[in-house]
Amino acid sequence: MIEIEDAAGGRVAAYRAPVPPDARGRVVLLHDWWGLTDSVRRAADRLADAGYDTIAPDLYDGYCPQTPLEAMRHLTDLDLDAVVEGPARAAATHMGALVAMVGFSLGGRVAMIAAGRGLSCRGFISFYGIPGPDEVGIESIRQPVQVHLCRGDDFFRSGRQPAVAAELEGAAVDHQVYWYDAPHGFVDEARGAYDERAAALAWERAMAFLHERVAAEAVVGDRISLP
Prior knowledge:
Elements: E1 2-5, E2 11-16, E3 25-30, H1 38-49, E4 52-57, H2 68-77, H3 80-95, E5 99-104, H4 106-116, E6 123-127, E7 145-150, H5 160-170, E8 175-180, H6 196-215
Parallel strand pairs: 3-4, 3-5, 5-6, 6-7, 7-8
Antiparallel strand pairs: 1-2, 2-4
C-alpha cells in the first residue's frame, strides 16, 4: 500500500502492484462496491504480470462492505463527483503518461464518467459499469473506450445498458462493446457470480485493447522507461 495526494492536498491510499521491470504502460484500476479487496489486488497483479505498472486507489477510504445491503447503502450515499475528482483523478495524475483507466462495476461507472469529463488517459475499460443518464454525456467522450455488459443485468434500469451501447455507436468515439450471457460481477472469482469462461474472454479482450490502443502507439521500441 502507498499514499498519493489529490488535488486538494488530501491523502489517498492505494495498492501498487509489483512494478514490471520493462513496463509497456500504466493502469489505474478502480474497484467495485466491495471496496479495495484481495480480488482487486489480484487483478492489479494480473495487469502487472501483463506488463502494466498498475495502481488501485481506495475509493472508499478503507471501508469494505460485508453484505450486499451494506454495499448498496454505501453506494447510495457515495458522492460520485468527489470520487471522480478525488482518488480517480489523483491516481491518473500520479501515474502520468501512457495511463489507462480500468474499472469494475462502480469503478467502471467512475471510469466512464471520467472519460466524459476529459480526464487525461489513453483509454478506458469498464467491466459491467455504466453511468446514469444524467452523469455524463457519452458524446463528450473522446478517448477509446471498451465496455463489457451482461445480458439480463438487474443492477440497472431496464434498457439502460442498450441505451449506452447505442449512444456509443452514435458518438464519434473509438469504442468496443461486448455482451455476455453472465451475471453482473462475473469477473470476480471470489463471488458467486464468477463465470470462468466469460471472465477469461473479457480479460483477453481487455488486454488486447490495452496493447493496441494504450501502449502500442506511443512506446519507443516496445517498452517505456518508468521512474
